[in-house]
Queue: 2 jobs
Job 1
Amino acid sequence: MTSSRFVPSTKWATASSFSTSNHGTAAQVAEGLEELHRQIRADELMLVVGGHVRRAQARTVELIANHYGMPSH
């Protein structure tokens, strides 16, 4: 029987195999991140924001930070 706990070297491989693209409101994106967190049992997640417009990227980070009650800058 294998352990359900991940070792650091397998967390990344496991996380990268999930579809981790989330779109929607801050609450919807946070829900997707929290579901991923539950599935892979990671200690932490990294948010990578893509896009061509810096202002939109900054706004995305601001919305997620506000959702979690964190500073956005």
Job 2
Amino acid sequence: MSPPAPLRLALAQLDVHVGDLSGNLAALRRWTDRARDEGAELVVTPELSVCGYPPEDLLLKAHFLRDWRAALDEFARGTSGIVALVGFPERDGAVHNSLAVVADGAVRAVYRKQRLPDYAVFDERRYFTDGDAPGLLDYGGTGLALSVCEDIWADGPPLPGPAPAVDLVVNASASPYHRGKGRERERMLAQRARDRRAAVAFCNLVGGQDELVFDGHSVVLDHRGEVLARAPQFEEALLHVDLDVETARAARFQPRCSRSTREPHEPAPARPRHAPTGPPGPLRRAGPGRTGGGATRIRPHQTPAGTRLPDGTSYASYGVTFSDHAGTHVDAPNHIDPAAGAAAIDELPLTAFCGPGICLDLAADTGPVTRPRLAAAPAASGLPLLPGDVLLLHTGVADREGGTDPYLTDHRGLDEGACRWVAGYRVRALGVDQPSPDDPDDSVTPAHTTFVAAGILIYENLANLGSVAGRRFWFTGFPIPLRGGTGAPVRAVAFPPAGT
């Protein structure tokens, strides 16, 4: 049997305008027909391409929602010879940010965005209700996973299904521009492709709305995270690519080597622009025997008295027994949800354990870490919190109680609002100078469950955070790659910019 033909995919990078129903409908028809005429089987359009992004208070008007759905249905009736993925606001009791699958004259399926951002320039939770169903499609034997913008920024759900079921992850997006955003997106998308061993197609909006600028820069990457095709910035474009899904599918059934060492296609961790030249600042453990996770025991190696090597020298070694959550450590996803096929510590890429970071100083207040308290900290320190940052919280617990019994019981965790605020910023990891980001009487909620679901790593029992509080730095916290481990001890180090 001959292998299946490549999937002919097109990304329609459009400049659609908020509220311009007739203009947007005409643009969707024009670019979809062009994609079909140029040989594409599947065309992807940006997030909310029917109504434009962000529609904001127009979503509060019932007649606009009816008109937008009518426009989508009109577009569907005229669509043949191609499958189109079209973003639209869907009213079904609640209002959803949805992606319609249009084929053969009708809307055949709908995926509802699951991660609704409400930070920085975004306010989607004010208008939309998040979806709760996966967007898996079988397109002629090719497994598609649908996602909308924010869905793809955090690893894990809602990119659903076991890896063999997904050949292509499609993301319809309205991702605003800032300097360096294109590189940031491509690094993230490459990691998603490698983690899923699936191709990724990212179709972004172009143009502007009020203070927002959308740069396009749509891209398709293969299962190794390598760019196959890239659209230009700041102009409309139709990006075509032929996807060899069979090669990616075969790769998924090969044994995966341990992610504790980089695969040949995995790039080395990026070096910060402020490459450190001064000595690193170690983030030391809080104190011997008082860091949770079980005791660490060091035993002298049992060497018979008087044992010497032939040249007359002797040697010494130690046996070490410890929990995988002893001392300063990082939690693996399977620590919280071991029954759901979550990743073990040795299955995570090295790039997950390093990156730019900031440390917010919360030590002056020993109360619970609430959302208002946490949200005020970046401005107070003059440090913006950026997606992909490692966020360290200096609570002062290790300074006050490290090495004592109260260290395990007197700390205060993040409340649910604070956890959602952190998750909304898509940080890489969160670290605390106490046994847990949760209260002692509830050791896994809300912080552990929220952060694991958002793909955020958790570092615990850090110390010496006062030395980097209110500063930006490059963080590394590489774990021991314990096979199947639910966490691992780390040597956590912060590299401040040279001269600071």
